[in-house]
Amino acid sequence: xxxxxxxxxxxxxxxxxxxxxxxxxxxxxxxxxxxxxxxxxxxxxxxxxxxxxxxxxxxxxxxxxxxxxxxxxxxxxxxxxxxxxxxxxxxxxxxxxxxxxxxxxxxxxxxxxxxxxxxxxxxxxxxxxxxxxxxxxxxxxxxxxxxxxxxxxxxxxxxxxxxxxxxxxxxxxxxxxxxxxxxxxxxxxxxxxxxxxxxxxxxxxxxxxxxxxxxxxxxxxxxxxxxxxxxxxxxxxxxxxxxxxxxxxxxxxxxxxxxxxxxxxxxxxxxxxxxxxxxxxxxxxxxxxxxxxxxxxxxxxxxx
Length: 304
Known about the structure:
There is one protein chain. The protein is α+β, with helices and mostly antiparallel strands. The chain has helices at 29-32, 51-66, 75-89, 113-116, 123-130, 138-143, 171-181, 223-231, 250-255, 289-303, and strands at residues 45-48, 93-96, 106-112, 155-162, 197-207, 242-245, 259-264, 279-288. The chain has 10 helices and 8 strands.
């Protein structure tokens, strides 16, 4: 549940490279016995970001995160920049299920803001975020320091893009690897910038507390609600009211954040009593360099 950021357990084998089992090769004894349920083993592998393979998937995932505002940003050059920064910094990873040439299910990548502030691929995106900020915001100094340059600051944008049904326990590995790859004190990393702040961009959603647990597949209903559902004879269970990130692992990052900025999507239609689906909004979370490691550790402990 959004109100309880506990990641489901996953075996270590899910994070190692194994060969997938095709559906047609599986034993169909279950079907012969009248069961319509078939089990498929899916193994997840981690890869470096690959501009030659990952660009289409990155564009699709960017549009997903931009939600209603997907037409306001040209995702093609932004996707190219995200992947090229991954190669330049030797940082960032993707998760795939069918070899390196397959599309990623998710990825965590970083873009150096100071280096690319005027880059035509990034500037429209930064301008878009800045346009959502109040006149006084710690994010404004980092994203648009022209008014009061923050010379000592070196922020980086973290893009955490993934399919919503990706197993959550895989995500701490992506963040852990990213921090290791961006550690300038590590061997061979002396040229990596020492970023002072992380800006984690994404989206969230808001619940009024009247939505039913059935049909919302972003999060599973909590164990407590599952028990209540059984007792009530299968009736729908309302979800808890509140605002939550679409990626539940980001709740751990929120706990160590210096600032959390949320903004309504510019092109979203006004909501009324007849509106379908949950209300969505954009998010930018500001985290000081050293504190992100603690959030990642909390993610990993929640998976055990």
